[in-house]
Structures are given as structure tokens and as C-alpha cells.
């Protein structure tokens, strides 16, 4: 597996990829090499297709298959470039088609129920309320949320600095309610924890389970969102990304420009944002009622 590590070092040093992206590449390529155990120079296109088919048969989504293929193709390109293998078997392979699915979104009513779910009689739920509010207000990714530092929020002007994919920095406006919840959490929990531990950790949100002021984990945020969704009576299978999708969809439905949403979400390509231009059933019904001639009086 030394070649995989060599490639990961190249991506880290030469390409400057984030830890999360590197971890994804490592997972995909280690799974690939554990399944295809031939020496790299002997791997054929048939071996690669058989690996992808096996992942599909195990229930992997089309997006996961496409991600495996992309990682494998770039890995083999690197190996050929470095003359570790004599040729790149993937150079004439076409990427598998990805089935495009509309992202799951909450209605505005469901979103409000979710945001109200934390019980503010308990101090830690002020943290949870602030996180839910920020996720929906900003459309941030969970990795961006847990990496927020105190210095990233300007409480006076209502802006947050976010470090996105590829270490790209962007600024997102935040409404007064989210700012107020963050301030309340800081006063009730964050400051007392730091005073007690006599430390100055920079992270905005701390983990409740840790004995020290440790940064919150992605899994903890995912579990938290699902827990409050259940409490709010939401039957949809939602995750942290659902709040990101809902933020974009609600903005678009209310007339926000697609380019503004692209900037807000930190999409490098607007084609990633265009997935939110789907038509909701309510919009379709309203348009049909308004414009179809059969709904007119003859």
C-alpha cells in the first residue's frame, strides 16, 4: 500500500487538499487495493470494472461508484506519470453515469419545528440551538461548522468567515437570531468551560462528551440533527446536509439569484448549484392551475 501513501503525500503537498478530502481518497483507494491485490503494473481495465461492479452489487450508490472511479483514475494517472506503472489503463475508460437525484429538503414549516426542538432549559441545548440555526441560516457544510473559530464571527456586523473546500475562504451574512443564540451559548457554556480548564482553545463549538474543551465532531453534529428531527416529528430521513439543501431551496423559491446561492454555498462551479432549481410539487400545481387552458372558462 506504499504507492497509495505516496499518492496521498503528493495530493497533500502538491495539491494542498484538505484533511477531509485526503481521508476520502485514502478510504476509496485502500478499499480498491484491498480488493484488487494484483501488482499495480498488472492491473487491467477488466480488474477495475470488476471492482466497481462488486461495489454496486454491495449496494453502493451511483455517486459512490463515480467517486471510486474518479479516485482510481487519478491514482493510475499519477502512477503512470511517476513511471511506477508502464501505462495508464484508465486513460480510455469513461466514467460511469451518475443517477441524479433531487436532494431531500424540509418545508419551511418543518425547518421551523426543527429549529424549535432544543429545550433551552438545559444549557447544552443552547449550543445545539445555535448550531441548527447557523446550519440553516448559512448553508454551511458540517466540516465548515465544526472548524469555526471564535475569531471567525464578527458579532457586530453579523458576518462569518468560512474556510471551505480547497482552503477557499468566503464570508456569509448571519441574521440576528443566530448571532443571539451564539452569544447566549458562549456566555452560558463556552466561557465557563474555558475558565474552568484554564485553556484558550479557538473552536467556537465544544464537545459535550469531552472532559476538556475539545472541538465538536462531524458525527456528533449528525447525531444531534437526527435526534432533534425525531423530536420535532419529522418523518423524512434527514442529515446535516439536508439543512444546507433546505437553505438553498428556500432562498431560490423566494427569488434569490442562483449566483448568490452559489457564493453562499461555496460552489466552485454553478452546475453544482443548479440542482436546487428543481420545481416543488406546490410550484408545479400552482403553475398548472394558473396557466393550463383547461382551468379557464371556455
UniProtKB/TrEMBL annotation:
Annotated Gene3D superfamilies: 1.10.150.130, Intergrase catalytic core
Gene Ontology MF annotations: DNA binding; tyrosine-based site-specific recombinase activity
PROSITE patterns, alphabetized: CB, TYR_RECOMBINASE
Keywords: Cell cycle, Cell division, Chromosome partition, Cytoplasm, DNA integration, DNA recombination, DNA-binding
Listed CDD domains: INT_XerDC_C
Keyword Cytoplasm: yes
Major location (coarse): cytoplasm
GO CC terms of this entry: cytoplasm
GO biological process: cell division; chromosome segregation; DNA transposition
Ranges for domain Tyr recombinase: 101-289
Domain Core-binding (CB): 1-80
Active site: 141, 165, 241, 244, 267, 276
Pfam families: Phage_int_SAM_1, Phage_integrase
Localization of this protein: Cytoplasm
UniProt subunit comment: Forms a cyclic heterotetrameric complex composed of two molecules of XerC and two molecules of XerD.
Similarity comment: Belongs to the 'phage' integrase family. XerD subfamily. Belongs to the 'phage' integrase family. XerC subfamily.
Job description of the protein: Site-specific tyrosine recombinase, which acts by catalyzing the cutting and rejoining of the recombining DNA molecules. The XerC-XerD complex is essential to convert dimers of the bacterial chromosome into monomers to permit their segregation at cell division. It also contributes to the segregational stability of plasmids.
Annotated protein name in UniProt: Tyrosine recombinase XerC
Amino acid at each position: 500500500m506504499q504507492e497509495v501513501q505516496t499518492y496521498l503525500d503528493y495530493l497533500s503537498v502538491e495539491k494542498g487538499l484538505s484533511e477531509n478530502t485526503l481521508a476520502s481518497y485514502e478510504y476509496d483507494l485502500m478499499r480498491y487495493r484491498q480488493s484488487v491485490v494484483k501488482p499495480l503494473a498488472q492491473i487491467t481495465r477488466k480488474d477495475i470494472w470488476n471492482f466497481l461492479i462488486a461495489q454496486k452489487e454491495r449496494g453502493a450508490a451511483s455517486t459512490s461508484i463515480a467517486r471510486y472511479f474518479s479516485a482510481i483514475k487519478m491514482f493510475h494517472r499519477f502512477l503512470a506519470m511517476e513511471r511506477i506503472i508502464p501505462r495508464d489503463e484508465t486513460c480510455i475508460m469513461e466514467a460511469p453515469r451518475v443517477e441524479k437525484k433531487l436532494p431531500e429538503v424540509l418545508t419551511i414549516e418543518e425547518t421551523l419545528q426543527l429549529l424549535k426542538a432544543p429545550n433551552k432549559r438545559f444549557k447544552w441545548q443552547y449550543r445545539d440551538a445555535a448550531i441548527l440555526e447557523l446550519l440553516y441560516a448559512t448553508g454551511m457544510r458540517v466540516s465548515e461548522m465544526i472548524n469555526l473559530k471564535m475569531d471567525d464571527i464578527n458579532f457586530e456586523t453579523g458576518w462569518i468567515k468560512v474556510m471551505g473546500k480547497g482552503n477557499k475562504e468566503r464570508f456569509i451574512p448571519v441574521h440576528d437570531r443566530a448571532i443571539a443564540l451564539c452569544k447566549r451559548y458562549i456566555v452560558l457554556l463556552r466561557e465557563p468551560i474555558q475558565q474552568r480548564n484554564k485553556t484558550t482553545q479557538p473552536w467556537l463549538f465544544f464537545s459535550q462528551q469531552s472532559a476538556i474543551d475539545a472541538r465538536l465532531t462531524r458525527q456528533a453534529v449528525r447525531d444531534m440533527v437526527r435526534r432533534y428531527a425525531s423530536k420535532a416529528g419529522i418523518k423524512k430521513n434527514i442529515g446535516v446536509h439536508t439543512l444546507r439543501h433546505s437553505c438553498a431551496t428556500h432562498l431560490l423559491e423566494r427569488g434569490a439569484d442562483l449566483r448568490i446561492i452559489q457564493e453562499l454555498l461555496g460552489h466552485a462551479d454553478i452546475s453544482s448549484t443548479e440542482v436546487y432549481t428543481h420545481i416543488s410539487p406546490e410550484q408545479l400545481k400552482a403553475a398548472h392551475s394558473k396557466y393550463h387552458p383547461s382551468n379557464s372558462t371556455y
